Write the structure tokens for this entry.
Amino acid sequence: MRGLLVLLLAACEGSGIGADGGSANDGRVEDRDAAVVDADAAMDAARLDAGADTSVDAATDAASSEDASDAAFDAAREIPSDAAIVAQGYLGRSLVSCDDGRTWAYENAGAPGSCGGTDCLHHATSPQGLGFGGGSWFRAEGWGANPGRIFVSPGGREWRQVFETDRRPLGGFAVDGEWLIAIEHSRVYRSSDEGVTWTRTDGVRENPRRLETIELTSGPVLAAIYAGAFAIFAVSTDAGASWNVPDREDPAEWPAGCQSMRRMRGFHGAGTTLVATSLEAFCVTSDFGRTYRSLEPPFSPTSNVVQHDGIIWSYSSGAAHRTTDGFDWDAAPLEGPDGMVIREVVVTPTGAFVATDEGRDDDHDFYRSEDGIRWEHAGNYPGHAVQRFAVGRSELCADE
């Protein structure tokens, strides 16, 4: 199965690259037939159906009530000996962990020095995506007045360039099954041969800011965040070949609260729900991005959003926040080192949480948690700030 791609556009403050004025509905897919359910009915059923408890506690209780054979199977689940986590930082930095995020043994320090006369966010090496597919690692970089570039690596440490855009920077990159998908200002690049050849199609308009592959019960989807003079979400169920884009002029499809999204934090999904978070609003869809509902932010997120065992997680200063439906969030105080602020987080194949504080180059901390609540310091690794994590397999780990 392929993934669901979701793209969300939010204002790109100070990027120097504005919207091109095109309609955000150009890439819209009108028909999803049986795959698309009625949004209102799905959301109301998930939240209000009599007798249905969609709370995190209910999900946790259900998980804990699995029979002994399932629990034994999960406990004995084999993790590949070459399982790895790769971290992507500015100026081409990468690190590899072969022990589930406890230590980071292999590092490519990237280019020496600093980002020079521009801020790192708008630098040619600004991280734009990281993923694993077909036995290789891929990373994308480049923002501001710089073309986008994509690199490949067998192990996550040494990289070779395989692609460069002809003009604009990349705003998102994801691996969806056998496909590599890169989003540029108004175009989508796709490769099914690990970056050897690429095809280009007209994409969703405006400036992309992040692209993810998200596992839903229907299968993986691609989700993207777009940035322009307004926020917009775009979703693909066919590896980026076509997109569902709400009509921003229709409040039934893209409500006013969603239009206010600017300072994006992330998005993810579970079941049939996709949720995007920002400091201005949270937006939720359950019909593959055709219609949305918005809510006032129940907290001020500091991190991206991840999914684990049917629960969507995000973080604020001092707390973990969880939901099963995108609307009702609970909060649990974090336990961990003083001053810890979670910025980027990933869930590993064992179910552990690994995070970074996105600190400065000379003070960069990693953290690890078995349950997402109680955290331990996993080392200080000075170097260019890490922006992304991804999980996969590495030949470096197989040698250990």
